[in-house]
Design a protein that fits this description.
single chain; mainly beta; four-stranded antiparallel beta sheet; globular
């Protein structure tokens, strides 16, 4: 069965960086686009970044463009989200996504 396991969340100061990872199993990872979503308290879940199956095409929400980078390793079956220049408004639970499948989420808190 499909499993998506996120890691790497935590507390960061404004302007700081965090790197999230999502280890995938149970499907042919290299055949599918992958996505990162986030959900802040009291808000709807929003799409943050998408990467194509081979990693050549990437897209970002306007709110994170230029600060976040999505990448993948099709040997390790892992997708990453490098988050730089973090802002308090980036505070949310971040989720890895494959179509109808979701990871358990990892909390990111940006605060001084």
């Amino acid at each position: 069965q499909v499993q998506l396991v996120e890691a790497g969340g935590g507390l960061a100061q404004p302007g700081g960086s965090l790197r999230l990872s999502c280890a995938a199993s149970g499907f042919t990872f290299s055949s599918y686009a992958m996505r990162w979503y986030r959900q802040a308290p009291g808000k709807e879940r929003e799409l943050v970044a998408t990467i194509s199956s081979a990693g050549y095409t990437r897209s970002y929400a306007d709110s994170v463009k230029g600060r976040f980078t999505i990448s993948r390793d099709n040997v390790k079956n892992t997708v990453y989200l490098q988050m730089n220049s973090l802002k308090p408004e980036d505070t949310a639970v971040y989720y890895c996504n494959l179509n109808d499948y979701w990871g358990q989420g990892t909390q990111v808190t940006v605060s001084s």
